[in-house]
HAD superfamily hydrolase
Amino acid sequence: MLKNIIFDFGNVIMNYNPDEILNHYELSRQEHNLLRKAIFESKEWSEIDAGKIDEKQATKIFVSRVPDNLKNKVNQIMATWPENVDFYEPVFNYIEHLRKDDYKIYGLSNTGMEFANFVKDSEMGNYFDGYVFSAQERLMKPDSRIYEKLLNRYSLKAEESLFIDDLKANTEAAKKLGMQTFTFKIDKLDELQDYIASH
């Protein structure tokens, strides 16, 4: 019997799209492209998620790589980008419905702590019963140990837990541990609801 629903963040509870994030800042096309490469497509961006460096260290590196006229923009983007992400309201409405039906809701995300804390400290944090974040654990999906951290920390049984992620490699890794899985895109929300209703 299904008791626990575990959500990835990027492209599951929100639309993670660097171009759309950067559209919130006043940038020319050239500046937009330069900052996308310098920040979101950098190796340091992945290292933030992996817990190898933190956002402050990464910001200094990004600032050092851009022309003088964009240094303040880098600081501004790094300080404010989480507020400029579009969260999927229908997903949160559905999570609210699941909570009323006594499902436990968890977050398992490859993300840095700035974004993790932004979600936890906002009203979105009220939707979750617990979290595991890659930067904090210094483990990244699809490493099996990060799923095991979640199961062990909250005393969850794998077979009673559904893991939802947009990447097949991540759902496959959860499946190997005996979890139920669903590979998600926002246009599959109806399919997800049908799956949960039938389990």
Notes: The chain has two domains: 4-15+86-197, 18-84. DSSP finds eleven helices and seven strands in the chain. The mean pLDDT is 97.
